[in-house]
């Protein structure tokens, strides 16, 4: 029957006795028994249990995935989706888990559940799924929604925060401004943005998927979807930024005495009788004219263009192709208004990886648009932890921490790297060693001559690899194309 309890989603997890409870328990028709036990149950008073009566082992041999028996230090990617009940075992380490679990979490995070043997010590959490963020709906009429990541949910992300926002066809993110700089990437659909600055200049532009805008702190702006809606990603240069704390035009008017409004706008007080009763936030609007010239208002200081432009049509930039994928970079050298926002849009093909590197002056804020990947973060002096990412996840890596991003799926991995830096730059581990005296490298790492001689003196950005991520377990090679 529709709506019955049998229609509900069944979450994978342990069943049977646990913690002294044996579900399903009998259904009671009236209260009975006591909420508390007595002193006879205290240690020394209670009868000793039969320690052979309960078990923390599985009734059958655990089902392991390909590569799970291999040497833990190989750190092979484990496809825990290929079994019903994954186990936290890698090589000679770990043990079965018969206790309280939701299998889907472990399948999404195999490198946390069964970590590589090379992981060590403590590393700040580097992943937050926006699917776990509270999704704030807009005004009535299914106008849209927004969900955010900030230091409340990812404490180490001190320099940047993110918001994923959807506007229904012709809906607005109401006129507002904030204390943080706002960098945005259009994910789906098209949008019109408008703003003015403190130099008496105005700006209006239309953007579609793959395009970018930036509004400096304090600059008031509006965002309106076109008739097929829009979804965009916002990145702010304050880690504790709160989407719910922006300055709103509706609230500014609501908190100002009517006498003051009348005087400020030189209008009869009745002109303000229909002001909104509360904040609009996200709300449905009337369709804007397709001809943008009809909404371009000439300001005393003129119209912002060139290096002063608040937008960049990144979708029209051709990517830089390399073996293993492609990269597009946008930083203040080509988008001057965003003085400290540098970004790379990276596509990594199956089996390939973003090469081992670190950023010298900035933390790295990542957003995963499609596919799945993992990264091991080296945290000075001797800690490292491997994290898994899927579409909709935010990643955060502190300044100077070495890492890579490996495609762990069968489709292209697409992700965004954002830095707070005047140019996009990194240090390639392979290039560093290639440009270091050979004897120095040998004395430090005992690497063979053949390897050192093959190191590229130019950054490769991406590295190709075997699409079979457990090839090493069968005697194959990780880097075979």
UniProtKB/TrEMBL annotation:
Coiled coil: none annotated. PANTHER family: OXALATE-BINDING PROTEIN (PTHR35848), SLL1358 PROTEIN (PTHR35848:SF9). Residues 1-10 have a biased composition (Basic and acidic residues). This is Cupin type-1 domain-containing protein. It comes from Purpureocillium lilacinum. Keywords: Metal-binding. The keyword Metal-binding applies. The keyword Metal-binding applies. SMART domains: Cupin_1. Residues 130-273, 312-453 form the Cupin type-1 domain. Residues 1-25, 46-67 are annotated as: Disordered. InterPro entries: Bicupin_oxalate_deCO2ase/Oxase (IPR017774), Cupin_1 (IPR006045), GPI/OXD (IPR051610), RmlC-like_jellyroll (IPR014710), RmlC_Cupin_sf (IPR011051).
């Amino acid at each position: 029957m529709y709506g019955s309890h049998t229609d509900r989603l069944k979450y994978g997890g342990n069943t049977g006795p646990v913690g002294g409870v044996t579900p399903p328990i009998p259904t009671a028709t009236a209260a009975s028994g006591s909420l508390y036990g007595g002193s006879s149950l205290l240690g020394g008073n209670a009868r000793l249990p039969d320690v052979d009566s309960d078990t923390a082992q599985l009734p059958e041999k655990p089902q392991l995935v390909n590569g799970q028996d291999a040497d833990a230090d190989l750190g092979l990617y484990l496809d825990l989706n290929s079994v019903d009940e994954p186990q936290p075992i890698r090589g000679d380490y770990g043990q079965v888990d018969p206790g309280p679990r939701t299998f889907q979490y472990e399948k999404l995070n195999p490198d946390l559940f069964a970590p590589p043997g090379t992981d060590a010590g403590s590393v700040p959490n580097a992943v937050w799924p926006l699917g776990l963020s509270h999704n704030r709906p807009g005004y009535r009429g299914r106008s849209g929604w927004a969900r955010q990541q900030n230091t409340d949910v990812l404490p180490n992300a001190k320099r940047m925060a993110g918001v994923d926002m959807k506007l229904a066809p012709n809906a607005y993110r109401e006129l507002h401004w904030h204390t943080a700089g706002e960098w945005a990437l259009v994910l789906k659909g098209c949008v019109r943005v408008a703003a003015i600055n403190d130099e008496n200049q105005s700006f209006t532009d239309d953007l579609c998927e793959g395009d970018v805008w930036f509004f400096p702190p304090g600059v008031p702006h509006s965002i309106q979807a076109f008739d097929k809606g829009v979804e965009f990603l916002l990145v702010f240069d304050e880690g504790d930024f709160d989407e719910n704390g922006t300055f709103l035009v509706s609230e500014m008017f609501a908190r100002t005495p009517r006498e003051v409004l009348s005087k400020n706008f030189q209008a009869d007080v009745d002109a303000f009788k229909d002001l909104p009763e509360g904040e609009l936030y996200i709300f449905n609007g009337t369709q804007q004219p397709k001809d943008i010239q009809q909404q371009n208002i000439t300001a005393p200081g003129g119209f912002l263009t060139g290096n002063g432009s608040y937008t960049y049509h990144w979708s029209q930039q051709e990517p830089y192709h390399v073996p293993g994928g492609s990269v597009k970079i946008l930083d203040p050298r080509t988008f001057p208004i965003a003085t400290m926002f540098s970004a790379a849009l990276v596509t990594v093909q199956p089996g390939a990886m973003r090469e081992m590197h670190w950023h010298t002056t900035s933390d790295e804020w990542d957003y995963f648009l499609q596919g799945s990947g993992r990264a091991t973060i080296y945290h000075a002096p001797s800690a490292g932890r491997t994290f898994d990412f899927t579409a909709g996840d935010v990643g955060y890596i502190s300044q100077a921490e070495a890492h890579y991003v490996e495609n762990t799926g069968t489709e292209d991995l697409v992700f965004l790297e954002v830095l707070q830096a005047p140019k996009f730059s990194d240090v390639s581990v392979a290039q560093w060693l290639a440009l270091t005296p050979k004897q120095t490298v040998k004395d430090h790492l005992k690497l063979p001559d053949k390897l050192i001689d093959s190191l590229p003196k130019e950054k490769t950005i991406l590295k190709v690899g075997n699409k079979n991520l457990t090839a090493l377990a069968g005697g194959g090679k990780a880097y075979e194309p």
